[in-house]
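Example record

The entry below shows one chain as it appears in the dataset: sequence first, then structure tokens.
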Amino acid sequence: MHVLILGGDGYLGWPTAMYFSKRGYDVTVVDNYLRRNNCTAIDVGMLYPVPTLQARAKLWYEKTGREIKVVIGDLTDAELMRSLFDGRVTYSWAVNDEFTGVPETVIHYAEQPSAPFSLIDYKTANLTVSNNLLVTNNLMFALKDLSPDTHVVHIGTMGEYGTPNIDIEEGWIDIEHKGRQDRFLFPRQAGSLYHTTKVMDTDLIWFCVRMWGLRVTNLMQGPVYGLETHETEGDERLYPIFNYDEVFGTIVNRFITQAVVGYPLTVYGRGGQTRGYLNINDTLQCVGKSVETPAKAGEFRIFNQIMETFTALELAEFTQRVGANLGYDVQIDHLDNPRKEAEEHYYNPTYQGLIDIGVEPHYLTDEVMAGMFRVVERYRGNIRKDVIFRGVKW
């Protein structure tokens, strides 16, 4: 099977490419280095240097004998997107540059993923809106015109739902109103512009599924933590991009990095904000099981992709405890919350669907966090305290 990964250079895209390649799939990845370029534009660093996508694909081939074809280009260009389906594509790196064929599966990560970045100013807002919606729209029309049977696994976000005062179902909700019943997408109330573009994604995809009979699985993902996957086998040159700053870093990764350099953990307000989290290896599992059990034609299948929930303060105290066991004096700093969000709220999402199709959860344990501490420690000299907190306000 040919798997096409859009956004294959990113924190999740590159590990996904290795995951499928190791399992014998033909893999093509596409990226335009948007995340790297945005990091450079706002002067935030990564924990360690990351080779180019071409260099990583070459290294993977040398280690495994398996080819990951690389395309460097901007997927907001509709013709580039269409070239991935009609054979006009030009590879930036490949062992064999013959067209692999129409992909049976597309995994769509190719979006600007940061809520703070989306609200720095109108320019970053415009970039977020234009990139995220154009890439998805280009993909939908390419499928309609060139490959309507291809299954799409789109990475959504639990942030689309917000924090409603009712249980969050898996994508859909049954409504009874004035004696009549119907089934609707679960109401969305996003808390950032980035999350709002993901809501628009969901509506756009659902429209295209209804109109054209496409097949799509939408994974409503919570924040991911971790950096080692089974495919890296200890080779740090194959590690994913790891950001530790407020703009692009996820909370567990940020807290561990802050602890290692003696920077007080940045808890917003009282820290009662509750979210669902998952290990990076579980992201790969969820995507993998979704590919193995694809949505049917005309089906928009939605799973909530989290494994457990924590408040921000619980994660800070978790980091403090594990850090103390490793000899760190970890302090917690309660900052004025730069975001518009409820300090404390009801949060009870359903997340059974992925387990039903075979995902076996990994949980955040002291041992798992300590392993992350040990990797971050090796790069302590690269960490810049001045970029950890930028104070981007909503």
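Notes for this example: Residues 59 and 202 are 36 Å apart (CA to CA). The domain at 2-387 is CATH 3.40.50.720 (Rossmann fold).
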